[in-house]
Design a protein that fits this description.
Blueprint: H1 2-15, E1 39-41, E2 56-59, E3 65-68, E4 78-83, H2 101-110, E5 118-123, H3 130-137, H4 152-169, E6 174-179, H5 181-194, E7 203-209, E8 214-216, E9 239-243, E10 245-247, E11 268-270, E12 283-284, E13 289-290, H6 296-300, E14 316-318, E15 323-329, E16 334-340, E17 357-358, E18 361-362, H7 372-375, H8 377-393
Parallel strand pairs: 2-14, 4-5, 4-6, 6-7, 7-9, 10-16
Antiparallel strand pairs: 1-5, 2-3, 8-11, 12-15, 13-14, 15-16, 17-18
Length: about 400
Amino acid sequence: MIREWMAACALAVGLAVGGGAAAQPATPEHNDYANTANWLCWPGATPNACDVDLTTTVVKADGSMTIEPFKADPKAPIDCFYVYPTVSRDPGLLSDMTVKTEERDVVRQQFARFGAKCRLYAPMYRQFTLTALFSVMSGKPMAGATGERPKTPYTDVVDAWNYYLAHENHGRGVVLIGHSQGSGVLTQLIKTEIDGKPVQARMLSAILMGTSLAVPKGADVGGDFKTIPLCRGASQLGCVIAYASFRDDSPPPENSRFGRPRTPGDNLAAACVNPANLAGGGGALESYLPSGTDSIVAASRPPGPWVKGKTVTTPFVSVPGLLIATCVSTPTFNYLAIHVNADPASPRTSEITGDIVVGGAVQKDWGLHLIDANLAMGNLLDIVGLEARAAAKR
């Protein structure tokens, strides 16, 4: 499954809004987003994929462990709108609208924790599946997987966004959050539905992870978005955080899928905004990493013991002081470099998992794509909280 997932994700980012020259397949009927069954997360809905156990074990460098409970804020003053990455293993070109384990799992890893700062909205959408995209990679594409593809994933998300705006927003500030295929869809939505339009005033920020957002070299405005800048301050509003993460001792190789614009240009670069230091330079990551074997991360390479001689029983682990992030710029790539403060004398682990591993070999062109969101989750929560305060003052 990991091989299929890695083959699919980068393709899905580019395919999610259609492309090619062949005749476009028929587009399915629009979803009814008034029905909360078509949402993974919706305030007060039952079931709700965001109502999950996010309890965390905080492991300090000396090996001591404490339990950090989690509690959502049902009275949060702002909203968050999330589009998930390529996860569906449905058999067709497009996924159906039935919530399955893979959608619930990715919400738990990437989005549910934002419930501490905002009301959570996450639509289901008919995304390009792992099955369809792997068929392209294998050289035996299923019908509709090549040529001009249906724009259904994008259309679904636009429909969900417009329903949310019309019936739930009521002028509240909103943060848009996406990863991989989700970031690709949100980039297109921001381009066509938000950038330069009155609703832009409601967008507190956009967090686009595991993608290559294009900006002019040395500039914060331009490229994919005409008027929306990169974020350079925690209380700055109406800006974008975008990045793709790699280990600092394993930078993007020439064939990397991330770190440079998908449409190359002499004056364009991939945006890198460090959630641990928006102004620039290095910063300590406040990570919330999956602790055990029940995630796509563990399916690639399970984590080892977090502390020698001790067992972690919570679904997440925080490792303060272990990870440092810095945006690195080379003539070819811009990326978020992750440094591990290894200490062999410490009882706490000096290793993290998050690489894509196939047949025992690390796929370096993917970097730490699997844990882009986990790495900086605490930092992003702090930023969203400060944006909420700034929005209240405004």
